């Protein structure tokens, strides 16, 4: 496939396909493209959805024809350069209490990898991740790339209720659940931070392009930071 | 910025909530990169005509009443507009047809029964229902707990009250004679033909699958809500096993490995990774949102240019 490519996504959207594989180095390009679209479309821009390799550009069809929007995107792509500010990326830290009571799949990972808890924590917290996209729920950030040794398939049966703050892994990605929701990822710990709050100025703590570090904390520190120590309900533990 | 105070007043009391009644405006925009979906009326067509009848601004907040069951009591005299599904509405037991403006006097009871044609009705008031916008919008998204009359994404509940702008009510009493043209009063019981703009992965579906996609009759599945509508019929085969998740537009028709397409509507997740046949036009999304489970629909390919022209004519007529 020749890239970049502009793909039709309905009467008022184009999907800009920049890359064909997941790579942290994609993000400065996608961030630059977002910024250029905001400048070029101005108030005719309705929404932008950056995600891994693509950007969905939703424009106001009352003001721009599909051809006009396409031409505008083509001219942006003709001289797109990665965004150096975004390339540096905002650094965000997530304190995490890694414990079986709030991260029941730590045991699954230990069994699969042969590593002990300490080694697992060091592997997960020892890497800086990039936010590739937000989706699934407000503030839910898809981050990568996880060390191959920690790559685990999702649970066969998703949980009905994953507690808010749960830090999880699936495949080569990691995330944290902003609020209680259903979910099929492997839970390995919990963060005390509120990841999404519509009343805050920066509603989502994590943004696409951010660089994220997980910082292990003990139970006392987790509680001091306001964390909820209630265990993941035993009845909901994975049976896979 | 205007310093004018807006005076809100209780207009309607919820006597019975029914299965699902929510406040919707045009939708929540500019926040999808945070994983926040767009929301807004599942049937934009009927919603926009209801606002048009009262000469409201585009996207003024109206009630989306799903399947009926809702009973409202007027707390003051109100001019209201009802468009979309025929949910067997009555005013103090007298039948009330959709696609018109009517007056509900203080103390009168507006009751919705069961679906006669279509599944979603839109009730508009002059100036739109009032509320505190969340992330710039009143659109109620229950899955996210955002928006609506409460701000917390809750549907209407018994005993709650809906608020209106009294100045807008006063201005509305002059009464412009607006009507919905007959051709826009859609027959939701008729077979639905949904315009679909073929997308980038269309060639990744097998030839027989593409033939089936556009020639078979599809049934609307019971798994149909504001996130999406599943269609059941012949199995569609795609040569792509999976894709990297990407932003999903309103009306995208994705085909998961079971080969049964899902049309994604207003409350869809913001990103997804299944191959797509393409994107339904906005008016096709509206039409689909009025289909009952078991109803037959067909997919018809439509060129982007023609689809955009149709949509722009719709916007031009209703944003005026």
Q: Name the helix and strand elements of chain B from N-terminus to C-terminus, one letter apiece.
A: EEHEEEEEEEEEEHEHEEEEEEEHEH
Specify the number of helices of chain B.
5
Q: Under the CATH scheme, which class of the largest domain in chain A?
A: Mainly Beta
Q: Please state the average pLDDT score of chain B.
A: 95
Spans of chain B with pLDDT under 50 lasting ≥5 residues? none
Main sheet: strand order of chain B: 7-6-9-4-1-12-11
How many discrete domains of chain B? 2
- Per DSSP E runs of 2 or more residues, the count of β-strands of chain B stands at 21
Q: How would you describe this protein?
A:
Chain B: Keywords: ATP-binding, Hydrolase, Nucleotide-binding. Chain B: InterPro entries: CT_A_B, Cyclophilin-like_dom_sf, PxpC. Chain B: It comes from Onishia taeanensis. Chain B: GO terms for molecular function: ATP binding; hydrolase activity. Chain B: This is Biotin-dependent carboxylase uncharacterized domain-containing protein. Chain A: One of its GO terms (molecular function) is ATP binding. The complex is a heterodimer of chains A (240) and B (320). Chain A is α+β, with helices and mostly antiparallel strands and 240 residues long. Chain A has 2 domains: 5-87, Gyrase A, domain 2; 91-238, Cyclophilin-like (Cyclophilin). Helices cover 23% and strands 27% of the residues of chain A. Chain A contains 6 helices and 13 strands. Chain A has helices at 27-41, 66-78, 84-88, 106-113, 117-125, 219-224; strands at residues 5-8, 13-17, 45-51, 54-59, 91-96, 129-134, 141-144, 159-162, 166-170, 173-176, 181-183, 186-190, 211-216. In chain A, strands 1-2-4-3 form a 4-stranded antiparallel sheet, covered by helices on one side. A 4-stranded mixed sheet of chain A has the order 5-13-6-7. A 3-stranded antiparallel sheet of chain A has the order 10-9-12, with no helix packed on it. In chain A, helix 1 (27-41) packs across helix 2 (66-78). In chain A, 47% of the residues are buried. The mean pLDDT of chain A is 94. Chain B is an alpha+beta fold and 320 residues long. Chain B has 2 domains: 9-182, no CATH class; 192-318, Cyclophilin-like (Cyclophilin, Beta Barrel). Chain B has 5 helices and 21 strands. Chain B has helices at 44-53, 166-172, 207-215, 282-288, 304-318, and strands at 8-16, 20-24, 62-66, 71-74, 78-86, 90-91, 94-95, 100-104, 109-111, 117-124, 129-130, 161-165, 192-198, 218-224, 228-232, 246-247, 252-254, 262-264, 271-272, 276-280, 296-301. In chain B, strands 7-6-9-4-1-12-11 form a 7-stranded antiparallel sheet. In chain B, strand 17 and strand 18 form a beta hairpin. The interface between A and B is large, with 46 and 46 residues.
């Amino acid at each position: 496939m020749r890239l970049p490519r502009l793909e039709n996504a309905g009467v008022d959207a184009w999907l800009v396909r920049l890359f064909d594989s997941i790579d942290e180095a994609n993000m400065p390009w996608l961030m630059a493209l977002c910024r250029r679209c905001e400048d070029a479309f101005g108030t005719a821009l309705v929404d932008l959805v950056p995600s891994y390799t693509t950007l969905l550009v939703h424009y106001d069809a009352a003001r721009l024809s599909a051809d006009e929007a396409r031409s505008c995107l083509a001219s942006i792509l003709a001289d797109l350069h990665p965004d150096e500010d975004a390339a540096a990326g905002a650094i965000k830290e997530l304190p995490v209490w890694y414990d079986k009571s709030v991260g029941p799949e730590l045991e699954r990972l230990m069994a699969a990898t042969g590593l002990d808890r300490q080694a697992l924590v060091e592997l997960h917290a020892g890497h800086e991740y990039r936010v590739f996209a937000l989706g699934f729920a407000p503030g839910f950030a898809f981050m990568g790339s996880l060390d191959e040794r920690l790559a685990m398939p999702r649970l066969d049966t998703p949980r009905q209720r994953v507690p808010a703050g749960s830090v999880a892994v699936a495949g080569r990605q990691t995330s944290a659940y902003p609020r209680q929701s259903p979910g099929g990822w492997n839970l390995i710990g919990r963060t005390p931070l509120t990841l999404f709050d519509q009343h805050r100025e920066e509603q989502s703590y994590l943004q696409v392009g951010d660089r994220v570090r997980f910082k292990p904390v003990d139970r006392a520190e987790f509680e001091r930071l306001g964390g909820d120590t209630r265990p993941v309900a035993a009845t909901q533990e994975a049976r896979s | 910025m205007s310093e004018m105070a807006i005076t809100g007043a209780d207009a309607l009391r919820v006597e019975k909530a029914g299965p699902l009644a929510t406040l919707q405006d045009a939708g929540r925009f500019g926040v999808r990169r945070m994983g926040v979906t767009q929301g807004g009326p599942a049937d934009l067509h009927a919603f926009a005509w209801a606002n048009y009848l009262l000469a409201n601004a585009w996207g003024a907040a109206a009630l989306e009443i799903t399947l009926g069951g809702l009973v409202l009591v007027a707390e003051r005299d109100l001019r209201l507009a009802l468009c979309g599904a025929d949910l067997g509405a009555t005013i103090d037991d007298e039948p009330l047809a959709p696609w018109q403006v009517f007056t509900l006097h203080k103390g009168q009871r507006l009751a919705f029964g069961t679906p006669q044609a279509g599944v979603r009705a839109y009730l508009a008031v002059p100036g739109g229902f009032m509320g505190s916008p969340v992330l710039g919008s009143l659109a109620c998204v229950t899955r996210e707990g955002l928006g609506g009359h409460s701000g917390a994404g809750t549907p209407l509940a018994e005993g709650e009250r809906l608020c209106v702008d009294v100045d807008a009510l006063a201005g509305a009493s002059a009464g412009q004679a607006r009507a919905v043209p007959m051709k826009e009063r859609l027959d939701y019981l008729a077979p639905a033909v949904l315009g679909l703009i073929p997308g980038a992965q269309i060639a990744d579906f097998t030839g027989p699958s593409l033939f089936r996609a556009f020639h078979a009759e599809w049934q609307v599945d019971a798994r149909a809500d504001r996130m999406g509508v599943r269609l059941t019929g012949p199995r569609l085969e795609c040569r792509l096993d999976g894709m990297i998740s990407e932003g999903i537009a309103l009306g995208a028709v994705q085909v998961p490995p079971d080969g049964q397409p899902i049309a994604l509507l207003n409350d869809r997740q913001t990103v997804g990774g299944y191959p797509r046949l393409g994107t339904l036009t906005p008016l096709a999304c509206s039409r689909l949102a009025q289909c009952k489970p078991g109803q037959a629909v067909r997919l018809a390919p439509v060129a982007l240019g023609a689809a955009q022209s149709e949509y722009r004519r719709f916007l031009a007529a209703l944003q005026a």
